Amino acid sequence: MDLIRTAVVVVLIIGLGTGVEVGAIQYNFYEKSCPQLENIVRTALVPIFLTDPTTPAALLRLMFHDCQVQGCDASILVDPVEENLSSEMASRKNFGIRKRGLISMLKSLVEAACPEQVSCADILILAAREAVAISEGPHIKVPLGRRDSSIAPSYELADALIPPAAAGVDDMLRIFAGKGMTIEESVAIMGAHTLGITHCLNILNRLYEQEGDQHQRMEPKFEALLRSICPKVSSTSNSSFVLNDPTTLVFDNHYYKNAMGGRGVLRIDAEMVSDPRTAPIAQHFATDRDDFFLAFSTAFVKLSTSGVLTGDQGVIRKRCNVVD
């Protein structure tokens, strides 16, 4: 485990201040063109978070699903048009995605202050960053300067690139290693599951079709609870859901505590605490919230900067839901 090195990296990232680049993006990217950007986003989101406390989880998931498909380029925000009805949002893996319109609202506020300067992609990253912070998670400093995609990827591409609900440790490590993450950071980024819910549709296979698999074993009372909420045959499996952990509105390390106790909802939650590559890290995060926060912060930055469009690539959309 290399948590000391991870902590040092985070301290360096947070302490770099302005003028430092991560690839072609910078921590002070909008210093002259839109210096009030972060304050606009934060001020607009606070009352929304207070009114609907499920919003942070929705925004964090929205960012994850956007960044998994060709990098963080706001492509998930594009609405289908008549000649291309198979938009990214048509993917079955984007079932339950919410709050896309909230990014468009933030964009309109930013446009009023800084016309045609700030990408929807950067606004989405800032919104996800605020979602973590408002939920009592770490305050993450993120570099900016992303550009928006000029095309809307098909649902087939989203189907292929967004990890399935049945993904295991091998899948998780492969995906996040491709984004430059260490094993520690890969385990840490999974801690985003501490916020929000999981739809029954995504765990029916685990509950009823993989019985006896030692890696899938749950604490018996917890398994019984999930089965009572998510019956094998139900007309409401698309809308029924279970909480990811008991403190679902708070960004904390209870996700790891639950997984260690056999109360992980998804397959990855169970495998991560039994696989020798990841189990010691998950166990450490279950007992040390601060180290989890440090590793999650570096992982968040790596995810948000992997494969992004910059410079002459992409565009800055005037409206987030339309490719100009």
From TrEMBL:
Residues at which heme b binds: H193
The organism's place on the tree of life at top rank: Eukaryota
Keyword Iron annotated: yes
Cofactor(s) demanded: heme b; Ca(2+)
GO cellular component: extracellular region
Domain Plant heme peroxidase family profile: 24-324
Family according to the record: Belongs to the peroxidase family. Classical plant (class III) peroxidase subfamily.
Described function: Removal of H(2)O(2), oxidation of toxic reductants, biosynthesis and degradation of lignin, suberization, auxin catabolism, response to environmental stresses such as wounding, pathogen attack and oxidative stress.
UniProt-recorded name of the protein: Peroxidase
